[in-house]
Design the sequence.
């Protein structure tokens, strides 16, 4: 963009006019549900299968076929609704959303329009803003159109009919950063309740962004939709381009350039949004009730059964970790980003009785093991290292049996083999030396020729003691207990005074 802007909180300040422009952002997020079969047929759901091999007459729209609703999809959808505090409707219905495109073989999509299964609720962002939800509805996915063959378009219908929920937020966000925070929080919730993997690389989470801009204090203006953003980075960069594009258009004074209600696509390579089509309204889709499906009735007992399957959600866990366990905000976020990691941490912390040390080992070493190509594990539960192993290692350090350097060596072997820490310490001779006589010999040797260290310590500059601790640790091959070494050094220096 040619115009220049400064950021002040959520406002974009035009360098040429000084006007404070505020974005207005709402998101529509499509999340694939973790069902083994599609929403209305028995076809398998599997990422990476050969094109058009996971299809049947129902999901390819053959005449005379009838849809049958997947009960598991409804259960998972209700759990997400409850997790965000939405109101679940006792009765909702499915509708036909009619449009014609190559990746939708029936020429309509079974979705929910005026009576979705839940409304309301919202998500609290780390920034403090609360983003309200308008609704969440259940619908089937379209297939995948592939446009990278020159003048040819290929269609893969493996994804056609896969169960989705679409979460529609109110336009409560005012910055690209808040939009990403919302996406991250929603992804966490979906994964925590077990409703889906929400893996954007596999197309399991996609979003459409609705954005407009307005001078601060003025009414909302025309919104533009940016379609099919498949990563948090793309969502942020699309907004970082589109917001100044709209501001510059308004400030040009040329009404022909003013934003109009349209759908745009984000060109990832060029980093720009481009017009795709004029924005359809509800009337363009000619919604009408799906004649082949009865209304969806959900009893109170069914809803409460799903509520009973919910776990403690990530934001509540983070708050508990900070307030009850004394963890930092950073550590709390690292540990709660994935439910399996949070569960693993709680098991290890309960066994060790030392939550801070447990958090440090997991954040710095255990999770690092997942990135090691020599360790064949894709999740923390697949590691050979188990919570009781980490608790035992922490105990060895706390009781003085093992120095932190030796503990790192033991941890590396535990991650690779799952061997017990005490056995590794004994096998490798890593026990800390506690023998007073041996420690004193090393300490006296370390002080020889270091008169300045002695003088500094006697003058009250205790930090100078480190210059003598290092040689002791070297002489002992890292096995000397650092705490005892310091005590003995101070005693010797005091005795000779």
Sequence:
């Amino acid at each position: 963009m040619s115009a220049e802007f400064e950021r002040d909180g959520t406002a974009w300040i035009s360098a040429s006019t000084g006007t404070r422009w505020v974005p207005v952002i709402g998101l529509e997020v499509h999340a694939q549900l973790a069902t083994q079969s599609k929403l209305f047929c028995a076809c398998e759901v599997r990422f990476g299968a050969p094109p058009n091999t996971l299809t049947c007459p129902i999901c390819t729209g053959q005449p005379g076929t009838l849809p049958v609703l997947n009960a598991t999809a409804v259960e998972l959808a209700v759990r997400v609704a409850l997790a965000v505090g939405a109101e679940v409707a006792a009765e909702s219905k499915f509708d036909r959303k009619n449009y014609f495109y190559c990746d939708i073989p029936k020429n309509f999509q079974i979705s929910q329009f005026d009576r979705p299964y839940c409304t309301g609720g919202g998500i609290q962002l780390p920034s403090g803003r609360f983003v309200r939800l308008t609704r969440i509805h259940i619908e089937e996915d379209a297939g995948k159109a592939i446009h990278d063959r020159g003048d040819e378009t290929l269609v893969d219908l493996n994804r056609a009919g896969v169960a989705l929920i679409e979460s529609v937020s109110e336009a409560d966000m005012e910055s690209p950063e808040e939009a990403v925070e919302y996406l991250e929080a929603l992804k966490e919730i979906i994964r925590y309740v077990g409703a889906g993997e929400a893996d954007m690389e596999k197309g399991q989470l996609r979003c459409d962004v609705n954005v407009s801009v307005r001078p601060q204090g003025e009414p909302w203006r025309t919104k533009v939709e940016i379609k099919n953003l498949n990563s948090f980075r793309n969502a942020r960069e699309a907004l970082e381009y589109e917001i100044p594009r709209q501001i510059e258009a308004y400030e040009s004074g040329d009404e022909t350039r003013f934003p109009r209600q349209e759908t745009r696509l984000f060109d990832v390579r060029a980093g720009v949004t481009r017009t795709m089509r004029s924005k359809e309204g509800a009337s363009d889709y000619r919604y009408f009730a799906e004649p082949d499906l009865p209304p969806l009735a959900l009893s109170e007992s069914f809803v409460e059964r799903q509520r009973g399957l919910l776990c403690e959600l990530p934001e509540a866990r983070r708050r508990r970790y900070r307030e009850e366990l004394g963890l930092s905000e950073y550590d709390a976020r690292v540990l709660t980003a994935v439910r399996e990691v949070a569960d693993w941490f709680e098991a290890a912390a309960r066994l060790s009785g030392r939550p801070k040390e447990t958090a440090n080992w997991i954040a710095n070493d255990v999770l690092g093991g997942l990135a090691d190509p020599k360790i064949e594990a894709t999740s923390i539960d697949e590691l050979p290292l188990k919570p009781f192993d980490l608790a035992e290692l922490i105990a060895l350090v706390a009781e003085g049996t093992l120095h932190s350097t030796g503990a790192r060596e033991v941890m590396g072997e535990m991650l690779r083999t799952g061997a017990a820490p005490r056995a590794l310490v004994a096998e490798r001779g890593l026990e800390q030396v506690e023998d007073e006589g041996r420690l004193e010999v090393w300490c006296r040797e370390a002080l020889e020729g270091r008169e300045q260290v002695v003088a500094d310590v006697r003058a009250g500059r205790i930090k100078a003691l480190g210059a003598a601790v290092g040689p002791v640790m070297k002489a002992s091959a890292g096995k000397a207990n650092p705490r005892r070494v310091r005590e003995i050094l101070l005693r010797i220096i005091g005795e000779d005074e």
